[in-house]
Write a structure and sequence with these properties.
InterPro entries: RNA_pol_sigma-70-like, RNA_pol_sigma-70_dom, RNA_pol_sigma-E_actinobac, RNA_pol_sigma70_r2, RNA_pol_sigma70_r4_t2, RNA_pol_sigma_r2, RNA_pol_sigma_r3/r4-like, WH-like_DNA-bd_sf. It holds the Pfam family Sigma70_r4_2. The protein has 9 helices and no strands. With 164 residues, the protein is mainly α. 21% of the residues are buried. Helix 6 crosses helix 8. The chain folds into 2 domains: 3-72; 90-162, Winged helix-like DNA-binding domain superfamily/Winged helix DNA-binding domain (Arc Repressor Mutant, subunit A, Orthogonal Bundle). 72% of the residues lie in helices and 0% in strands.
Length: 164
């Protein structure tokens, strides 16, 4: 498979992965573009990898983690939204989803990446460990700490129901 075919076939999947780890669509597009650009630079090396797609996903994850270390990356979530309504609001699901995104934003970049890879990408601990270059026990410990932090900072009952 040449680079153009790969980019066409997997580009949107990379954007989705970028969105789930960053929570920002524009940043997700940037992450996918960075990953594809770096993969293009060393396409022969990527093709020789056991799983080229895993190699490119690792580039994207490492780019995200690197990006979060920069001082300019830090953003504070907006103030809480008042959701105390006496009549059920049809937008409740949207608010609950927003609450979950806010709770995820309180996690460190590595914690968020581990949870996204585990629960959104449905990867096992060994695959996540290989992707991040850490031990499987570190993946489990990071996931445990992240879930504990999410439970501690939950803002509504609906957020709690979504947590494993």
């Amino acid at each position: 498979m040449d680079f153009e075919e790969y980019a066409s076939a997997r580009g949107q999947e990379l954007v989705r992965l970028g969105f789930t780890v960053s929570g920002d669509y524009q940043r997700a597009e940037d992450l996918a573009q960075i990953a594809l650009m770096q993969a293009f630079r060393s396409w022969r090396k990527v093709q020789r990898a056991d799983d080229p797609h895993t190699y490119v996903r690792r580039i994207l994850i490492n780019s995200y983690l690197s990006m979060t270390r920069r001082r300019s990356f830090t953003e504070a979530p907006a103030a809480e939204i008042d959701t105390d309504h006496t009549v059920p609001d049809p937008a409740t699901d949207i608010v609950n989803s927003d609450d979950l995104w806010r709770a995820l934003a309180t996690l460190s970049a590595r914690e968020r990446v581990v949870l996204v890879l585990r629960y959104y990408q449905d990867m096992d601990d060994r695959t996540i460990a290989d992707l991040l270059g850490i031990k499987p026990s570190s993946v489990r410990a990071t996931a445990s700490r992240a879930l504990a932090a999410l439970r501690k900072t939950r803002q509504s009952h609906r957020v709690d129901e979504r947590l494993p």
